[in-house]
Amino acid sequence: MSKTIVAIIGCGTIANSAPIPAYVANPDAEIKYFCDIRKERAEKAADQYGCGEAIEDYRIILEDPEVEAVSICTPNNCHALIAIDCMRAGKHVLCEKPAARTYEEALEMQKVQHETGKTLNIGVVNRFNTGVNIIKKMIEEGELGDLYHVYVSFRSHRSIPGLGGDFTNKAVAGGGALIDWGVHFLDIVMYCAGDPDPKTVTGQTYSKLGKDMKNYSYINMWAGPPNYEGTYDVDDFVTAMIRTAGPSITVNGAWAQNIGVNEMYIDFLGDKAGIRLQYGADFTIYSAKHGALLESNPKFAQTDQFQNEIDSFLSCIKSGEKLPSHIDTVILTAKIIQAIYQSSEQRTEISFVKEGALA
Ligand SMILES: NC(=O)c1ccc[n+]([C@@H]2O[C@H](COP(=O)([O-])OP(=O)(O)OC[C@H]3O[C@@H](n4cnc5c(N)ncnc54)[C@H](O)[C@@H]3O)[C@@H](O)[C@H]2O)c1
């Protein structure tokens, strides 16, 4: 079988930490281009991995019929434009999360996917996580009983990324803690619960601890250092309640909050058993039997979720299989996130079952 020729667009943090090494490790893929508007980053990747040509304009990729697949690892404001251009040029696309800055942009991407028939997967990498898939199976097989509620907490004392950079600028990122971290947490919930249709959403976002940039205290800053000349106009805290055709969901998430202990977990609450999943780690099952309260910690071999994601993307291009990370499923999370922002702005509940709500 011939190798799939791949191009990487955006050679920053995530590209170097996950997708590029995963393509290099897959014997069926060959990276032909590293593209970044900061050409030195593309050149560094080409040097480091000993393959590919460094370019700064992704339109070169569009014109090269040899390229079958692209990984989009740029900031959120370029996702829709580049993904749409690539699909229209006949390329299969794996686009980093979130799908886009807004639900409308994600819908446009989905529309072009349907028109062109090219693959469009979003980097909701937890769908390729071993523990998450075990939980999904347990829920599907009724081991939790009736899954009636899911509680989501992703709260940190001080974790605002790159203050004044791309992540804290709404025009670039589309939002803050909710769209950047919340997208992963909500995606796990939706996946494990069988992607239930959202019915109503109410939420409130806050921009409190980061907006006075010079007085923001921190110890470490990912995606830093701060740029005090930049913009901070995104949420650093979100609280929300979502009713779906399946379980109800409550969300509390913060890049920064005055709390003692960081909390990164999801509680799946069934009437027979409950599960607490520690984000990116193991899970615990809680139940009761014969008057005893039971707690168990399943042991299993974790696999590399990023490698699984890239391997699955490459094989679905050949097989035509629709992966769980397809835009058709991920679009629901984009809809919920937009509704939380809309609910917060309008200080009202957003309903998908009444007239006048988002389609
Ligand atoms: N899946 C995950 O868990 C995960 C983790 C981190 C980041 N991400 C996502 O990945 C994306 C990138 O995040 P990052 O932390 O790597 O950011 P980054 O700033 O480190 O890297 C982005 C790169 O894209 C380049 N770029 C910008 N516009 C471009 C264009 N038009 N053409 C080519 N290159 C362009 C920038 O110069 C930069 O080098 C974001 O959407 C983010 O949400 C996903």
From TrEMBL:
Gene3D superfamilies assigned to the protein according to its UniProt record, in alphabetical order: Dihydrodipicolinate Reductase, domain 2, NAD(P)-binding Rossmann-like Domain
Record organism: Paenibacillus apiarius
PANTHER family per record: BILIVERDIN REDUCTASE A (PTHR43377)
Pfam families registered for this protein in UniProt: GFO_IDH_MocA, GFO_IDH_MocA_C3
Entry-linked InterPro entries: Gfo/Idh/MocA-like_OxRdtase_N, Gfo/Idh/MocA_Oxidoreductases, GFO_IDH_MocA-like_dom, NAD(P)-bd_dom_sf
Domain Gfo/Idh/MocA-like oxidoreductase N-terminal: start-end pairs: 6-123
Ranges of residues in domain GFO/IDH/MocA-like oxidoreductase: 135-275
Protein name as catalogued: Gfo/Idh/MocA family oxidoreductase
